[in-house]
Design goal:
The protein folds into three domains: 101 residues, Serine Threonine Protein Phosphatase 5, Tetratricopeptide repeat (Alpha Horseshoe); 166 residues, Beta Complex (Beta-clip-like), CATH 2.170.270; 192 residues, no CATH class. A hairpin with a 3-residue loop joins β3 and β4. The relative contact order is 0.12. It is globular, with a radius of gyration of 25 Å. The chain contains 19 helices and 14 strands. The chain has a three-stranded antiparallel sheet with strand order 5-13-12, with helices on one face. Strands 6-10-9 form a three-stranded antiparallel sheet, with helices on one face. A two-stranded antiparallel ribbon has the order 1-2. α1 packs antiparallel against α13, α5 runs antiparallel to α6 and α18 packs antiparallel against α19. The chain is mainly alpha-helical and 559 residues long. The N terminus is likely disordered. GO terms for molecular function: N-methyltransferase activity; protein methyltransferase activity; S-adenosylmethionine-dependent methyltransferase activity; zinc ion binding. It comes from Culex quinquefasciatus. This is SET and MYND domain-containing protein 4. InterPro entries: SET_dom, SET_dom_sf, TPR-like_helical_dom_sf, Znf_MYND.
C-alpha cells in the first residue's frame, strides 16, 4: 500500500520495521549482507513509498496552522509551520511569498527586527501579492525605525568564543601543541604536546558533513546544521530540505543533494534519524573524483590505512579530495551489537538511491553496485564511529562529521566540553591538561551526574567505568573531603553566582580560577559540581554569542 501523498507522518522507517523483526526473532541478525539485501528489497517493494512533491494547497493549510499558533503566541511552533509551508510551496507562488511575510510578522513580535527585514525582503522578491503590500511595507518601515532607535536586540557578540591560544600553522582552527596518538584501548585520539589550562578553546571546526533528524528538517540547515533562528530557504525542487543561505543550498546540491532530491522521501523512509549523513559520505567522495566511479573504486578498494593522520593535512587551503581520503582511511570501531542495523541501513539506502536516474546512470555494472553497497556499509560504520551528535530534549539529533573533532574520544571523566552550534564544533577545556595526556570529551554521561547512568551506545572504557582495581582507586577519590581553603573558595564562588552586578564573563573567570587553583584536589564531588556549573555557563554564553552573530548576519544580508 502506498503512503498517502504529501503526508510525511505516514512514513514508517525501515529501521523501525526491522527493529521489531529482530526483537521478534523473525530476521537473523547474523545474516549476510546479500541476505539482508534480498529481505530489504522485498520489504521496500511491499511498502511502496511514493515521493512527496511541492503542493501549494498543502502549503496553504500549513500556513493556516502556523497562523493559529501565531495568534496563540506560540512563536516557535508558528515558525516551524511556516517553514514547512515554505518548503511545500511551489516556486514563485504567492504561498511562498506569504510564508516569508508570515515569518516576518513573528520576528517583529519577537523584536527580532533584523530577521523581520530579511524575510520582508524575501517576500518582496517572491511575488508577494500587491493588494497585501501596504501592510508589509508598513512593517518594514517600523522595523527600520526601531533599529535606528536602538530598540534592536544585541547584534554584537560580547565574548566571541573562538580559539584563544596559539594555533597550528597548518590547521588554523586547532590549537598548536596538539597531536594524534594511537592506543589499543581507544584507537586514535588527540594528545596534548604541552600543558593547557581551563578555558582554553582548542578547536573551532566547521562541519563538512551533517545529518539532520527528519523532525528537524524545517528547523535546521540541511548542509551546515545551523538553525539561523528558523530563517531558512527551501530546496526549489523537494519539500524537505531547507538551508540557512544560498551558499549552503548550492554547496549541498553540488556535493550530494542532487543525488537525493528526487528520492528524498524514500531515503527518509529508510531512517527518520540523522543517519543520511553516512551515505552522503559516498557521494561526497564521488563528487571529489569528478563522478569518475572507476577512479574512486581504484583508490577505495586498496587496503585502508587505519592509522592515517588527519593532522598531516594542510587546512589553510582545504582540499576536499584529501578530506574524503581522511574519512575513508578511518578504521571504524567494531560494534557487533549494532552491525545488523548498519547492514539494514546500507541495504535500504542502496535500494532507494538506485531509484534515482542520476545515481543509476553512474552505478551501472554489477561490480560497481557491489562496490556501492560495500561502501555504504563501510561509511555507515565510519560515520557512527566518528560522528558527533547534538540531541535535544525530545531526542531529535543532529550529527556532524569532521576530520579533527572525530579524533576526540569519549570519557565519563572528560577534560573538555564540545559544543555543536551553527555548523561549527567548538571544544573548550573544563580543567587543566598536562603534556602527554590524551584529551577526552563526553558524548553524554559524566561522572558527576551519576544518577543519569551510562547512556553511551557502546562499552565505555574510561577510568570511571573501569571495574578493575585502577577504577576502584579512582572512584574512591570522589568521596574525599575538600580542604578548608577550597571550601572557603567554593562558598565565594556561590556568592559570586548570586550577584547581579557580576556579568557572565566575570562569573566564568571566577570558576576558571577556582578550577585552576584547586586542580590537585580533582576528582572530588564538589569539584564535579563546579565543572558542571562552568560547562552550563559556557553553553549559555555560546548561545548568546551565536544569536548575536546571526542577527548581524541577517542585517548584513538585507543591506
Amino acid at each position: 500500500m502506498a503512503h498517502p501523498k504529501n503526508d510525511r507522518s505516514a512514513i514508517w522507517p525501515l529501521a523501525c520495521i526491522y527493529s521489531q523483526r529482530f526483537n521478534a526473532g523473525k530476521v537473523d541478525r547474523e545474516a549476510t549482507l546479500q541476505e539482508f539485501l534480498k529481505s530489504v528489497t522485498e520489504t521496500i517493494r511491499s511498502q511502496n513509498v511514493t515521493e512527496m512533491h511541492k503542493c501549494s494547497a498543502k502549503a496553504a493549510k500549513l500556513r493556516n496552522v502556523g497562523n493559529r499558533h501565531f495568534l496563540d503566541r506560540k512563536f516557535q511552533d508558528a515558525l516551524a509551520c511556516y517553514n514547512e509551508s515554505i518548503c511545500f510551496a511551489d516556486p514563485n507562488s504567492d504561498q511562498l511569498a506569504m510564508g516569508y511575510a508570515n515569518r516576518s510578522a513573528v520576528y517583529y513580535e519577537q523584536d527580532e527586527y533584523e530577521f523581520a527585514l530579511l524575510n520582508i525582503d524575501l517576500a518582496k522578491k517572491n511575488n508577494y501579492p500587491e493588494k497585501l503590500m501596504p501592510k508589509l511595507l508598513a512593517r518594514e518601515l517600523n522595523c527600520k525605525q526601531r533599529i535606528a532607535g536602538g530598540r534592536s536586540k544585541n547584534a554584537t557578540p560580547r565574548t566571541r568564543m573562538s580559539v584563544n591560544v596559539d594555533t597550528n600553522p597548518r590547521i588554523p582552527f586547532l590549537a598548536d601543541g596538539i597531536g594524534m596518538n594511537y592506543e589499543p584501548k581507544f584507537g586514535r585520539g588527540l594528545i596534548a604536546e604541552k600543558d593547557f589550562n581551563p578555558g582554553d578553546i582548542i578547536l573551532e571546526e566547521k562541519s563538512e558533513l551533517c545529518g539532520v533528524d527528519f523532525n528537524l528538517s524545517y528547523r535546521n540547515c540541511n548542509h551546515c546544521s545551523s538553525r539561523f533562528n528558523y530563517s531558512l530557504i527551501p530546496c526549489p525542487t523537494c519539500p524537505f530540505m531547507m538551508y540557512c543561505s544560498q551558499e549552503c543550498l548550492e554547496q549541498n546540491w553540488n556535493l550530494f543533494h542532487r543525488f537525493e532530491c528526487c528520492v528524498v522521501t524514500k531515503l527518509y523512509s529508510v531512517s527518520s534519524l540523522s543517519s543520511m549523513m553516512h551515505p552522503r559520505l559516498f557521494f561526497y567522495g564521488l563528487t571529489q573524483f569528478d563522478e569518475d566511479l572507476r577512479a574512486m573504486m581504484k583508490y577505495c578498494e586498496k587496503e585502508i590505512n587505519g592509522k592515517f593522520n588527519p593532522l598531516d593535512l594542510d587546512y589553510t587551503n582545504p582540499n576536499r579530495l584529501e578530506l574524503f581520503k581522511a574519512y575513508h582511511n578511518t578504521q571504524p570501531a567494531v560494534d557487533p551489537e549494532n552491525d545488523h542495523f548498519f547492514k539494514i541501513l546500507a541495504c535500504g539506502y542502496y535500494v532507494m538511491y538506485l531509484k534515482n536516474p542520476a545515481v543509476n546512470s553512474i552505478i551501472r555494472t554489477e561490480p560497481q553496485r557491489r562496490f556501492f553497497l560495500r561502501s555504504l556499509l563501510q561509511y555507515i560504520r565510519i560515520g557512527f564511529s566518528m560522528a558527533s551528535y547534538s540531541i535535544d530534549a525530545r531526542g531529535r539529533a543532529i550529527g556532524t562529521l569532521t576530520p579533527i573533532d572525530s579524533l576526540i574520544n569519549h570519557s565519563c571523566d572528560p577534560h573538555a566540553a564540545t559544543f555543536i552550534c551553527s555548523g561549527t564544533i567548538k571544544v573548550v577545556l573544563l580543567r587543566p591538561v598536562r603534556r602527554g595526556e590524551q584529551i577526552f570529551t563526553s558524548y553524554g554521561p559524566v561522572w558527576w551526574e551519576e544518577e543519569s547512568g551510562n547512556k553511551t551506545p557502546f562499552t565505555c572504557r574510561c577510568v570511571y567505568c573501569d571495574r578493575g582495581p585502577a577504577g576502584r582507586r579512582w572512584r574512591a577519590l570522589i568521596d574525599r573531603d575538600f580542604p578548608l581553603g577550597a571550601v572557603d573558595d567554593l562558598q565565594k564562588l556561590h556568592d559570586i553566582a548570586l550577584r547581579m552586578d557580576f556579568n557572565n564573563a566575570a562569573k566564568l573567570n571566577a570558576l576558571k580560577q577556582f578550577i585552576k587553583k584547586h586542580a590537585r584536589h580533582y576528582p572530588e564531588r564538589n569539584f564535579g559540581t563546579v565543572l558542571d556549573s562552568y560547562r552550563m555557563l559556557l553553553v549559555a554564553m555560546n548561545r548568546t554569542d551565536v544569536e548575536a552573530l546571526e542577527r548581524a548576519r541577517a542585517w548584513a544580508e538585507d543591506n
